[in-house]
Amino acid sequence: MKLLLTDSGVKNARIQDALVDLLGKPIAESSALCIPTAGYGAPDADPGGPWRFISGRSPLHMTGLGWKSVGVLELTALPSIDEARWVSWVREADALLVNGGDALYLAHWMRESGLVELLPSLPDTVYVGLSAGSMVMTPRIGQDFVGWKPATGGDSTLGLVDFSIFPHLDHPACPENTMAEAERWAAGIGGPAYAIDEQTAIKVADGTVEVVSEGHWKLFNPTS
């Protein structure tokens, strides 16, 4: 699986070019499934957020980029659907567009639904995360970002990449997300960690990690 882990969606031309590069064809020739699930898990969640994400009415551009087709894959519904049906939907999609919200809630449902077990068998599919949809792929999110609490406790997510993400750096809506706070957070993560702003994404393909940015970012705790 190829990853484009964004802070705030496809916010600029460089991030969009990175998406097209991962797809290997224009967005207009590509099919997508959007996954709104994380939008229900945050403590301040409301039903309007998932609707805006699905409908393309959100300013965080994901579903409204001009895809050939867009479908909805709601993870909480998958355990009640024949597995062969929804697996075929996922395998046929060129991209998975994964909403923000609560990363631990999303991790829970990615495991419960069986989607996380399917992901390694999708080498050509592009996973496009938005905020929590990006953070869920990391080993852990840090206690600062724990909202919904799993029964097992902790802040562990899926660990499909070996770095963590501090999102919304210096965003007006998140005045606490300063670079100094990101540095304090990173000191407790215990591994590589990126602080990224809304104009930044992290592209992962064939084992190579590349920061795609027209904004500000910083890598903490590099391994080399």
Automatic annotation (TrEMBL):
It comes from the Bacteria. Pfam families: Peptidase_S51. Keywords: Hydrolase, Protease, Serine protease. The keyword Secreted does not apply. The keyword Protease applies. Belongs to the peptidase S51 family. PANTHER family: ALPHA-ASPARTYL DIPEPTIDASE, PROTEASE S51 ALPHA-ASPARTYL DIPEPTIDASE. This is Type 1 glutamine amidotransferase-like domain-containing protein.
